[in-house]
Structure to design on (243 residues):
């Protein structure tokens, strides 16, 4: 059973001490995995996406994605997530793509998100590429927004050796083409 | 053709054979269309193709 001490967690997330902050992020992950979510967590997490420590950015971006999956999203998180798509760490970039795709389920996102995700379609990391393709498909499906510039990039993904990526690109293209039939 | 060597256990493969990676599950459900088994990890069969596969670190003594 999860012992919910939200005030303590929020204090930790706002702490300037990296170790306290990381401990609070671990508690947040545990709560979210147990199916418990609160909007106040999101407000405390957004500033952490700019912290220098890699693990803090990994955990905060994952928590924002998980909250979005649990239908707790905020348009104010979008600029931070877009910035994270250019992060030096591949797990952070993957989390950012995932979160943007989950937010599409609440019609949160914009055309800048699409351009950021397009760039990730050429990412050297295959998990990142897959999540970006999925997120673009989600935006087409849930928000009915897309950009013609995604199409050639996704078509190039159809030639990947990885079946996992080819199927992701197919899924995304199918949704984009529903909006813009050839 | 040489047989593929087995991969070590995945970090996300839970003891109850569930995949503990929320991003991987989402991808499997939506993009791969694995409607009934998106949350299940089939071990080696999935390890070979899953881009979310991450080798579970061996604890140091």
């Amino acid at each position: 059973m999860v012992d919910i001490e939200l005030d303590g967690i929020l204090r930790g997330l706002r702490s300037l001490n990296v170790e306290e902050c990381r401990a609070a992020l671990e508690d947040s992950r545990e709560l979210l995995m147990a199916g418990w979510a609160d909007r106040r967590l999101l407000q405390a997490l957004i500033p952490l996406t700019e912290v220098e420590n890699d693990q803090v950015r990994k955990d905060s971006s994952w928590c924002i994605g998980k909250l979005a999956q649990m239908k707790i999203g905020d348009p104010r998180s979008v600029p931070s997530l877009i910035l994270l798509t250019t992060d030096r760490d591949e797990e952070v970039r993957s989390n950012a793509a995932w979160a943007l795709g989950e937010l599409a389920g609440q019609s949160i996102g914009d055309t800048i998100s699409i351009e950021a995700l397009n760039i990730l379609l050429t990412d050297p990391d295959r998990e990142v590429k897959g999540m970006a393709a999925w997120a673009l498909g989600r935006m087409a499906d849930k928000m009915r927004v897309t950009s013609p510039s995604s199409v050639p990039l996704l078509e190039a993904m159809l030639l990947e050796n990885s079946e996992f990526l080819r199927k992701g690109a197919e899924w995304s293209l199918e949704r984009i083409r529903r909006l813009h039939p050839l | 053709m040489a047989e593929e060597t087995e991969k070590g256990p995945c970090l996300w493969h839970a003891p109850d054979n569930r995949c503990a990676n929320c991003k991987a599950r989402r991808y499997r459900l939506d993009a791969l269309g694995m409607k009934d088994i998106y949350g299940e990890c089939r071990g080696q069969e999935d390890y070979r193709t899953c881009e979310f596969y991450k080798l579970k670190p061996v604890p140091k003594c």
